Amino acid sequence: MARAIWSGYINFGLVSVPVGLYSATHEHEIDFHQFQKGTSDRIRYKRVNERTGREVPYEKIVKGHDVGGGEYVIVEPEELDDIAPGKSRSLEIDTFVDLDEIDPMHFQKSYYLGPKDSGNASSYALLRDALAKTNRAGIAKFVMRGKEYLATIRADGKVLVLETMFFADEIRDPDEELGDLPRKSGAGKQLSMAVDLIEAMSGEWKPASYQDTYTERVKELVKTKHQGKEIVYSEEEPQATNPTDLVAALRASVEEARKSRGARKKTPAKKKTSRGRKKAA
């Protein structure tokens, strides 16, 4: 079984449910080290005192906040622990909201919540099933690794899922970031054809149908270079569609999408097999 990266209690009303927090995802990553160009010399990073130039051991490093004028307030790790709500062991649900009301923009990262012991499995299951039945999510805050997180707790099949979230003031205003944005298109024919294209390209959400092809290309690049060969990709960079060609491009896209969907329908569907949820890495 995976090791919990955080453990504590979900608190709602007078009920406390002991849980552990586990990673629900892992990213495709290819490790690259840094080298000086033209050599096989690794580049290393050290924690160095900028005044003395000497390396400083990790255990002797503390945090400081710049208050301006070249002054810093030094904060010890113990002081951060003392002000952490619930001593960093509480997922305090403040309210329950309808899942459909939450803008996906607020979601940050997903984790699994698992019951900490078999003696409290019933309370875990009760919360999970009640959330599933009401299509609600609990909104909570908790502290992990010296940082406070806003989070939703929702049901997903047999498991409770925690989504860390951005606070409202962490989400940037698009008008401030992007300037003037286009108003409504106003082009009735173009809009109608764009809607037709979306409908023609619509289908079921099948996560397994999407693969990380870029990572595969990077692996192939490394493998080929290791063999002393060169690898060349001839894909062209996409070009913006000229507004005068938009209607023709939309019409051709709709026809192509409909043909593609028709071909998929003619292909015999594969027999589905039941698979259990994969365990978190």
TrEMBL record:
**Residue ranges of domain Ku in the record:** 53-182
Coiled-coil residue windows: none
Q: Residues annotated as region Disordered?
A: 234-281
Task: State the source organism's domain of life.
Answer: Bacteria
Note whether ATP-binding occurs among the keywords.
no
Instruction: Output the InterPro entries linked to this UniProt entry.
Output: DNA_bd_Ku70/Ku80, Prok_Ku, SPOC-like_C_dom_sf
Keywords of this protein's UniProt record, alphabetized?
DNA damage, DNA recombination, DNA repair, DNA-binding
Q: Where is the composition biased (Basic residues)?
A: 260-281
Q: Which family does it belong to?
A: Belongs to the prokaryotic Ku family.
Q: How does it assemble?
A: Homodimer. Interacts with LigD.
Summary of the function given for this chain in its UniProt record: With LigD forms a non-homologous end joining (NHEJ) DNA repair enzyme, which repairs dsDNA breaks with reduced fidelity. Binds linear dsDNA with 5'- and 3'- overhangs but not closed circular dsDNA nor ssDNA. Recruits and stimulates the ligase activity of LigD.
Q: What is this protein called?
A: Non-homologous end joining protein Ku
Organism field? Kribbella speibonae
